[in-house]
Amino acid sequence: MKNQYLDLEKKIGISFKNKSLLENVFIHRSYLNEHRDFKLTSNERLEFLGDSVLSLITSVYLFKNYPYLKEGEYTDIKGTIVCAESLSSAAKKLDLGKYLLLSKGEEKNQGRENKNILADCFEALIAAIFLEKDFETAYQFVVKFLFAEKLDFIIKNRLYLPAKTQLQEWLQEKYKALPEYKVIEEKGPAHKKFFKVGVYFKEKLLGVGSGFSKKEAEEQAAKIAIEKLKKEVKI
Fold this sequence. Notes:
Layout: H1 6-12, H2 19-24, H3 29-34, H4 44-65, H5 71-81, H6 84-93, H7 104-108, H8 115-132, H9 135-147, H10 150-156, H11 163-175, E1 180-187, E2 194-201, E3 204-211, H12 214-230
Antiparallel strand pairs: 1-2, 2-3
Helix pairs in contact: 4-8, 4-9, 6-8, 8-9, 11-12
């Protein structure tokens, strides 16, 4: 029987003796709704284990390579590197989407490009490598295919910081001045207020955010402002 995962195994440099374990990585729960007699379960249990293994790998890596950082910074960095956006990006580079077993509905909804499905798949693959080999092999896989130069870049440029902090530091360094946040709109009952907040610099609106707290709205506004600044908008 032809090994349908041969290209992937070559790409990651890991050969699986237990092909069913590797196949399990790519079984989305939607597929089982249409194939109830399928021999394997969904990848959810592997994803659950992979999430824990990834958390430990990230903690060990940061502890070994960035001893000067504080505990709070470790937490922020972990949140940045193990988010769905980052994991799905790594999954796309490995072309994991093409191996997924999905329902017809998920296929129509572009499930192979869905960042949450891909992120879960990547975590399931980490678990499969851990079970097939060992922690060290899983560790090296994550370092190579998730961290690579990305984690160093995040830390060097302090991209793990909240958007409000990043924006403030950038404007202080470049213009020696601070942004200002103003509530543009406030609506809803007292127990569930909804806010729309704008972030301004020298009276110029840089971004507008919204949320059920001023803090949430300000953070969103800051993120939008940062994206504008990346595009070198003159302010």
